[in-house]
Amino acid sequence: MASMATAIAPGVSLLTNLKEAQRCGVQQQRNRRELRLSPILSGGPVVCVHRVSNSQHLFLLGPISRGFFGDISRFKDRRFGKRLASGPRFGVPKAIKGSDETIVFEDVPHMTDWLPDLPSYPNPLQDNPAYTAVKQYFVEDDDLVARSIVVKLSSPAEGTYFRRAGPRQKVFFKPDEVRACIVTCGGLCPGLNTVIREIVCGLWTQYGVRDILGIDGGYAGFYSNNTINLTPKVVNHIHKQGGTVLGTSRGGHDKTKIVAAIIDRGINQVYIIGGDGTQKGAAVIYEELKKRGVKVVVAGIPKTIDNDIAIIDKSFGFDSAVEEAQRAINAAHVEAESVKNGIGLVKLMGRYSGYIAMYATLASRDVDCCLIPEVPFYLEGPGGLYEFVHKRLRENGHMVLVVAEGAGQELMTETNTITRSDASGNRLLLDVGLWLCQSLKDHFASTNEVLNLKYIDPTYMIRAIPSNASDNVYCTLLAQSAIHGAMAGYTGFTVGPVNGRHAYIPILKATEKPNRVNVNDRMWARLLSSTNQPDFLSYERVIEGKRTAKAARFAKLGTNGAAVPQEKKTAEVPVQNAVQNANEKAKELKEAK
């Protein structure tokens, strides 16, 4: 062991390459981007540094003491700069007695990775009377946040950890050298102005920064020379307004032009507020700045009203959106219960994730059925939506139906032929609200039954409102966490709460896959319990069941020697034809309007 490892601290060893690590019991997992350490090494802490997709990972076997990262950071190695513990990404496995599970530390990049001689300075907050009274205000380097906090005592599961957000004792920028910029991209969301305000006020009052620019009009504003000088006085009241005072746009991400503009203007802190596509663009900007070896940090603040950013507990503006959605649902309920066979149909935002629809339904308690993208549904036949609507109208005389904008896309035949996208690359969805509205009207007309349907689409009303009190506080925490991380030299990260604790998350990690409603979770079960709606089977299973029944009938006839009769036409219209007809009528209605 001693011949294959380099001692860097008492009881801590560094394996210098992958082959040595493998000889010491480290095994490459084919389907995982990590290594595992064999339990045979559990006699003492062992560190393995290796490369996976150009990212450095630090692996530790053995108990992690509070001073471990301090010992590691004192180790000088030219490959990783002065601070080994501040590498781009590290995975830290901790051996558990009787288990070979791995603990992975998903760290974020630091400027010292490519600027090893970068000087640090005492944090100005040490002299700020508002913070000196707070004991243990500064975050230690070895403070981590666990992604999962629920494990089984008998068999602890693999765990992923992120670096805890907050102010550090050392910063890598002097206040008078900082030139920061803020940009908002993508669609509107409650809380955008609050985040802008708190970044400006945090930099100004906490760190003494006086040079802050607002980039006007999204990513394209970087190379369009559109900037706004921001001060606490300028942004003092903007949190009471909806939208964004900086303006926004989709697309316009030209890496070369944006990076050139950042360098030409002397900007060294870039705060990017946006959703999934915007954050991926931020990662590209970070990589290009790193490649050029400049002292510039990129901090992302995730924004999505749909709450579909992975890892973090929730996105800002979500609470405000759910609260505003109640107004539309309440109006639909009043309309529906005031007439015979009244249906209030409300379409809410939710392209790929049905969180707004689900939480608004749970909060309202007036909704009879909630349709989301994660749960396929069908209209006709046993267990279909039409059957449930008839049942509820017979029981109550009215009903409220909530549908997320991304639900039912597979039922609308145009989805298979039209692949239009917006400037951000998002697939343009067909209007499920209009389609469902027309489908219900046609169905009730075919059965000669009375239907009074009111359709409400509050989509843009919901996202254009100012943030509520809860989101205002949340936006403040996000903004200040981003500031502390940028001043401490971290870059290529996004911020957000993980199990209630704010953390720095590698941008690409947060955008790996969207956060979707888990239909096997108890929250979805609570919704089904509240609405008593059917847990819809997929259309494929329904068709397969019909085919099986038909085959059984014909097989029975053949066994008895009887001739196989010609299949009679029934009142059941094929679902595909019904969908196509409803869709055509929906288009006609839309054109007429």
Structural features, described:
The chain is an alpha/beta fold and 593 residues long. The protein has three domains: 161 residues, no CATH class; 187 residues, 3-Layer(aba) Sandwich (Rossmann fold), CATH 3.40.50; 165 residues, Phosphofructokinase domain (Rossmann fold). Helix content is 33%, strand content 18%. The protein is built from 16 helices and 22 strands. The strands form five sheets. Strands 7, 9, 10, 12, 13, 14, 15, 16, 21 and 22 form a ten-stranded mixed beta sheet that branches. Strands 1-2-5-6 form a four-stranded mixed beta sheet. Strands 18-19-17-20 form a four-stranded parallel beta sheet, sandwiched between helices. Strand 5 and strand 6 form a beta hairpin. It is elongated, with a radius of gyration of 28 Å. The N terminus is likely disordered. Pathway: Carbohydrate degradation; glycolysis; D-glyceraldehyde 3-phosphate and glycerone phosphate from D-glucose: step 3/4.
What's this model, at a glance?
By secondary structure, the chain is an alpha/beta fold.
CATH fold label of the largest domain? Rossmann fold
Q: Which spans of ≥5 residues are poorly predicted at pLDDT below 50?
A: 1-21, 24-100, 559-576
How would you sum up the global shape? elongated
Q: What is the CATH first-level class name of the largest domain?
A: Alpha Beta
Tell me the number of strands: 22
Q: Report the mean per-residue pLDDT as an integer.
A: 79
Number of domains: 3
- State the share of residues found in helices, binned by percent: 25-40%
Number of distinct helices: 16
Instruction: Give a short account of the largest sheet.
Output: 10 strands, mixed
Structural class: alpha/beta
User: What distance separates the N and C termini?
Assistant: 78 Å
Radius of gyration: 28 Å
CATH architecture of the largest domain: 3-Layer(aba) Sandwich
State which percent range the strand residues make up. 15-25%
Subunit structure: Homotetramer.
Region (Disordered): 561-593
Binding site for substrate: 304-306, 349-351, 405, 460-463
InterPro entries: ATP_PFK (IPR022953), PFKA (IPR050929), Phosphofructokinase_dom (IPR000023), PKF_sf (IPR035966), PyroP-dep_PFK_TP0108 (IPR012004)
